[in-house]
Amino acid sequence: KLGALWMCIVLNPHCKLEQKASWLKQLKKWNSVDVCPWEDGNHGNELPSLTNALPQGANANQENMRQYKSLEYQHLPAHKFLEEGESYLTLAVEVALIGLGQQRIMPDGLYAQEKVCRNEEQLISKLQEIELDDALVKIFRKQAVFLLEAGPYSGLGEVIHRESVPMHTFAKYLFTSLLPHDAELAYKSALRAMRLLVLESAAPSGDLSRPHHIASVVPNRYPRWFTLSHIESQQCELASTMLTAAKGDVRRLETVLESIQKNIHSSSHIFKLAQDAFKIATLMDSLPDITLLKVSLELGLQ
After folding, report:
1. Please, what is the Cα angle at 56 between 168 and 11, to 5 degrees?
2. Looking at the chain, which runs of residues are DSSP E strands?
3. In whole angstroms, what is the distance from residue 264 CA to residue 271 CA?
4. How many CB atoms sit inside 10 A of residue 133's CB?
5. The Cα angle at residue 99 between residues 142 and 115, in degrees rounded to 5
6. Is the full-model pTM beyond 0.85?
7. How far apart are CA 245 and CA 175, in angstroms?
8. Are 108 and 224 in contact (CB under 8 A)?
9. Cα 299 from Cα 75, distance rounded (Å)
10. Which GO terms describe its cellular component (predicted)?
11. 2-10 and 17-32 helices cross at what angle (nearest 10)?
């Protein structure tokens, strides 16, 4: 309970460090009592201000994403442990991963869409400054599994809204971070993130419950995604990163190839990936990777 409440308070971009310290003291006090404060009138006067510490309104998630860097977790006493295995640093990193992995609808307008990309990249840039130790790797694993198995709140869940903000940039960071420690989980996360549903131009309509019914195909109207070219570039970067890492692994190379053929719609990016695969396959310090050469050929033909 203490960890969950503290996480909620850390999410508030307007909460100052001294306020966080005060809340931490209060939460520890509540955690030590035998009954929930709501059940005991002696604690009732402390409760109303709790809601003031939490982010409010429909734009809270966007505000958290935009201003999370205000926490400046690199300046917190990283080795001051709250509970066993927890520190301000580990909690801050976990909150960042939760925020980056949440499913959210792409907003309207050029400025708002550019801000989504910029805020995500700024937060990932902050995270990249941190050297991952065993405690942080454990958090990365935990959050990756949670995001893959979670419901509609996760951008890496099995089912997402067609206009969800793509997870390519986040997934590339997650992939490179997890790869040395849990390759299977790294690939599973990255492959799930490869989809770009907004470019799926046709959808079946009609009664699909009847086997004899032939579904009519009607074109879907494309939303106005002004940052689509940037998003497709990030999708291509994610695919290239997986191709590079999978060199020498036939099974994984075939899986990545299938994902590229299914999810990437831009012919120029498919051509770039064919070139990347060829370069990776023919590095001077080793014999050519036959499987990667085949991948390069198939992508070139496509």
Report:
1. 50
2. 202-205, 216-219
3. 11
4. 10
5. 145
6. no
7. 10
8. yes
9. 46
10. Cul2-RING ubiquitin ligase complex
11. 160
Structure token pair of residue 232: 């497709």
What's the whole-number mean pLDDT along residues 294-300?
96
Distance of alpha carbon 39 from alpha carbon 175, whole angstroms: 45
Which sign, positive or negative, has the C-alpha torsion 54, 55, 56, 61?
A: negative
Would you mind telling me the total number of residues written for the chain in this entry?
Answer: 302
CB count, 10 Å around CB of 127? 20
User: Which DSSP letter does residue 222 get?
Assistant: P
**Angle, vertex CA 47, rays to CA 46 and CA 52, nearest 5:** 110
Strands (E), 52-166: none
Q: At what angle do helices 250-263 and 290-301 cross, to 10 degrees?
A: 10
| Structural contact between residues 144 and 185, judged by C-beta atoms closer than 8 angstroms | yes
Kindly compute the dihedral angle of the four CA atoms of residues 228, 233, 239, 240, in this order, to the nearest 10 degrees. Answer: 180
Going by pLDDT thresholds of 50, 70 and 90, the confidence category of residue 84 is low
Closest by CA position to 42, among listed 29, 53, 54, 55 = 29
Q: Which of 136, 135, 96 is nearest to 119 (CA)?
A: 96
β-bridge partners, 102? 154
Assign 83 a pLDDT band (cuts: 50, 70, 90): low
Cα torsion 5, 10, 14, 20: sign: positive
